[in-house]
Structures are given as structure tokens and as C-alpha cells.
Amino acid sequence: MAKTKALLEVTGLRVAVAGNEILKGVDLAMGEGEVHAIMGPNGSGKSTLAQVLAGHPAYAVLAGTVRYDGKDLLELDPEERARAGVFLAFQYPVEIRGITNSYFLRAALNAVRKNRGQPELDPIDFLQVLEEKLKAIGWDDSMMNRPVNEGFSGGEKKRNEILQLAVLEPRLAILDETDSGLDIDALKTVAEAVNQLRNAERSFLIVTHYQRLLNYIKPDMVHVLADGRMVRSGGPELALELEARGYDWLRDGAMVS
Amino acid sequence: MAHVEQLVGSYRAWASNGASGAPAWLKDLREGGIARFHDLGFPNMKQEAWRFTSIAPIAEGSFELAKPPMRVPTLDDIRPFLLLEAGYRLVFVDGFFQPSLSTPFFDDVQSLAHVVRHRPDLVQQHLGKYAATDERPFAALNTAFVSDGAFVHVPAQTSIPEPIQLLFLATGEQPVVTHPRNLVVIDRAARASVVETYAALRAGAYWTNSVTEVVVGEGARVDYHRVQRESARGYHVAATQTHQDRDSMVNLHIVAFGAALSRHDIGAVLAGPAGKLILNGLYLLAAQQHADHHTTIDHAADHCESHEYFNGVLDDKSRGVFTGRIIVRPGAQKTDSKQTNNNLLLSTDAHADSQPQLEIYADDVKCTHGSTVGPLDPRALFYLRSRGVSEAEARRLLTYGFAAEILGRMEVAPLRAQLDAIVRGRLAEQ
Q: Which of A149, B109, B291, B409 is the 20 to 30 Å CA partner of A80?
């Protein structure tokens, strides 16, 4: 793989939630434009890593550093991370009553634009941006005038996360089990949109329990997280191996390659 | 109980003097009202329906019966309270009808006093037939003092496109009491939208004690909006009672922003099969405001649907009380009733009481209810922040959403815009 500019560098990260240590020293390096997958059994700490990178206040960092684009990411509030280009697609997107999806997206986009020194968009300009984004990923606007995620099906919620990703144009997109609960058609729809959004400046960190999403989104690197530690890293073939052999062979006396 | 005697005395003086020209049937109605009030007296907190609300400031206060305003406000004075200049409109100041500010329509959108004189038949068959006074001393007191208020009659198969505005303004200059009495009759297959608003021109202390009866005929539809934005020092007690015939639809929207102390009894009777009711309410309180909404939905016929949504947003030391009683009568099979009451506490000193009361006497029905009381959802806060929205803005947005969810169900665009502006103004003060 060609050497790219470093975007994210996690070193010795230890994280606890409610007094329980979940991440016990995680290292991860990602370059610009790269797609990395984090796989691992349930309870391995995959989602914790995703949430910590986004700045969830319930997680306490015990040790380690996270450099993002040359900055100390852990110093930043969640909103500052988002404005700096970090995006988390939630495993369980939150319902927000009374606020339409388009209102919410415009508020988010304007917060991000303000930080980039761009002018805020009025509703009409925003609609134009939105239409372009929807067209690019091949979706319609049927979700836009409903309250955020309220009454959405599982597939709609995940699609809504990807739509936010498309509109906010992050540099680091973290997908936390975006494939969970999706049938094969919904999975393909989401994966195709993600592939449309890949480019040389945007990196993806894909957290998943299963290999099947990686059939559609080809990763540059696959990492295996088990019991709070990275136990193996490799190319896309590692995902296939995990699919065939499961996770158990990595747990005991596993070697970090 | 000195104050009860005082009110009864003031009734006697009024009935024998200013109100002595009324027709006999109306005098009888009033006499029945004052007798009932005298029997019941003011409610106290030992009574189940008043457990959470003390009306001491009213019972112990001294309120004179309002007199006509010294100066009639101009159209400019009342413009902030109007939704649109077009359409029919009835304006009352301290309870007195103001022809110069109103745009009535013959005997159909008129002051109640006018219709009592010219078309008593339209009034007599309905007035006092729906709003119960048995256990409601305030409604009984209102009935004793019935003299004026809004009258709306929409004849069969008629549709009125613009919302009809009923505006009750307090001058706020004197500690007076008014007893507005409103009657809205929507005949068979007719359709109308009504906005009943209570507001003050000055931030004084006064007491409004209103009763509104809404009668909806077979296959008719009414969108009824009631906005309480009284002075922060005002007291507001009210009863709103709807009664709907078969295949009719009532969308009843209730908003309470104002008054130091308010109590609103809202009753809806689904009297004929296949009626539909939406009861959609919002209370937005701050400082030491206290608002008590006591709702009763009575499924008296089969195949009816009722959806009740009440949201409360409570800041500072305010207190919101919600009681949601749903009665499903024997034989009201296939009833489909949903009730939710969500309360958002923006301060640790704010307080909400929420009590559903389901009384189901039929076996083939679907009834659900749920209520929540709590601060902003931390998951939602993080979700918004993770999208770049600042914490302060995220709080405002989520709070606004709580109110917007209710306002969004209203179909009258200028009203939605007016209420939306009030909500945004209130949130900006925080």
C-alpha cells in the first residue's frame, strides 16, 4: 500500500466506562483516504473505540493518546471534533422529537461550515445542497420532513446516518455496526452510498461484527479487537479468514502480526 | 368561606340590576349555577381532582366583577394578538364585546348576548347542556354569571376556510374577574377552524373564569385551538367541553404559556360511533407558574378513536400537573385510545405530576398510555453534539423540539408561526 499522510494515530489507549476498563491499550494508525475495518467478538470494545473517538462523555480515558490531523483529539469536545471532520455513524441512532430531519441537518451543516469559515446556508440554499447529495447517493427526500429518526425503520435509521455523512463531508467517518439489523438489500444500498463517498482525502473506520459488509466495502486494512486489545492486523483476506474460522482461534495466545 | 358568600352576594346584586332583563330560561340557568356554586364552594386539595393545585390565591383574593373598559383599545393595540386581518373575529375586552374591533357575521359569528336577544332558539338548545357543573364549582360560577362571550354557528354542509378568531383581552388595570361563556355549534357535515385566545394588554393581576362548549354534528369537523397567554400575574380557570356526534372529527389543540396559576378542565365526549378526536396540548412554564390540565375523554360509542398528546416544558420553579382520564363506556367496543404525556424538566426545582386514569367498561378495546418526566435525554444531547452542534444550541434545539412536536400538529399556519415565535422567544430568555 502506498504511504499516505497520517490522519489518525491511536497509541496505548486505555478506556473505562463506569469503572470497568474496556480498552486495555489500543494502537491504530490510519492514513488519509484509507478504509480500515475493526472486527471482533461481542464485548471486545469495538463500539467503545468508536464512541471514544467521537467524544462520548460517559467514557473515561485512563491512558494513551489520540492524534487526529496533528491535533490532540482527546482535548476536544464532541462538537469540536465534528467540526474538525470526525463523524460517527451511530449503531443506535437517536430519535429527536419535534425536529425535522432537514432542520437538524441544516443546523449541523451550518455548525460545521461556520468552523470552516464558510457562510451559513439559508433553507433554500441548503435544499439545493441536500438535493445534490441525495442525487449523488441515489436516494429520495422521503425522510427529510419527518422528525429525526422517529418512527424510522432500522434500515431508514442507518441510511439517515449515511445521509448525514454525505452532507457533513467529514475527513474521518466512523461507522459503528452500520450493518447490524440490515437485510441484504438495505446493506447493499448503504454500502453503495459509502463507496460513492470514498475519496482520497476521506478515511473510513468501519466497526463490524460480521464480514459481509466488507464484501461490498473493500477495506485497506482489517484489525481484530479482542478483550480490549488489537490482536491481529492484516489485509482484506483477514476478514475472510475470520468469517471461516470465527474469533476463538485469536483469543488464546494470539499473535499480533 | 367568606369569599363564597361575597361572590354569591355580588351575583345577587348583579342579577337584580344589570342582568335583570334576561329571558326567563337564562335566569333559570344562572340561578342553577349560583345554587350549585354555593353548595360546592371552592375546591380544596383534599379533593382527588385538586390534589396538586391550591386555588388559595383565587379563593382568598378579592376580585370585582369587571366593568366595561374605560378606553377601548385600537386595532393597533390588539394586532400582536391577531393571526390575520381577514376572516371573522370576535374581540372582548375585560369580558365585554367590542364591535369596533370585531368582524362578526350575522347571527352565526356573533356575541352570545346578541344571539340571546335575536335568536334565543340557537342558544337555548345547547347552552349549559354539555359543560357539567356537578363537581365543578368554577363552571357553576361561570354559569351563574353567563352574560356574554363568543357564539359560533356553522350551518350544515358549510365550510369556513379562514380560522375564526375569538380574542379575550384583559386590560390588566384592575383586579377584576370575568366569566366569558362561549358556545360553538358545528352542524352536520360542516367544517370550521376556531382559535380562542386569552391574553393581557398589561401585566396585571386579574382572574379569568371561562367556559366553552363545542358541539359537533354528524360527519362534521372542527379544528379548535385554545391559547392561554394571560399575564404572568393573572389567574386562569377554564372548562372546555366538546361533544361530537357520529363520524365527526375534532382536533382540539391546547396551549398554555401564561398565568401565575391556571387550571383547565378539558372534556371530550365521543357520543356517536366512528368519531375521531385528537387532543394535542402543550404547557410551557417558567418562574413560579403553576398549570393544571385535567382532561377527560369519554368514549360513549363504539368504533371511536382518540389520540391524546400533552407535552410539558418546565423551567425554574414551575409546576405542571396533568391528569388524563379516559372512560370507555359499556358497549363502546373497538375503541382505539392512545395517551401520552411527556414532561421536560429544565431545572432541578421544576416539578411535574402526571397521572393517567383509565376506566374501561368494554372488553374489545385498545387503550395505551405512557408518561415521562425528566431532564433532556443525554443520548440525544451527545447525538447532536457529535454533529457539530454546540451543547447550548443542542439543549435549545431539543427543548424546542418538545414544543414543536405539539405545534406541528396544528394546521393553521399563521397560528403555528405565532406560537412558534413565542416558544423561540421564551427559549432565548434562558
A: A149
pTM tops 0.90, yes or no: yes
**B-chain residues near A107 (CB < 8 A):** 387, 389, 393, 397
Give the model confidence (pLDDT) of B197-218 as tens digits: 999 999 999 999 999 999 999 9
The verdict on a CB contact (< 8 Å) between A93 and B386 is no
ipTM over 0.85: yes
Q: Is A76 helix (H, G, I), strand (E, B) or coil?
A: coil
- Best mutation target, B282, B376, B387, to test chain A (most A CBs within 10 A): B387
Q: How far is B415 from chain A (nearest CA, A)?
A: 17
Report the candidate in B367, B364, B372 with the shortest Cα–Cα distance to residue B306: B367
Distance separating alpha carbons of residues B277 and B304, to the nearest angstrom: 8
DSSP 8-state secondary structure symbol assigned to residue A214:
G
Report the distance separating Cα B234 and Cα A98, nearest Å. Answer: 30
Can you tell me the distance from the alpha carbon of A155 to that of A183, in angstroms, rounded to the nearest whole number? 8
Spatial distance between the Cα atoms of B272 and B274, rounded to a whole number of angstroms: 7
Instruction: Report the residue of chain A nearest B402, measured CA to CA.
Output: A98
Of B414, B49, B77, the closest CA to residue B227 belongs to B414
d(CA B224, CA B125): 21
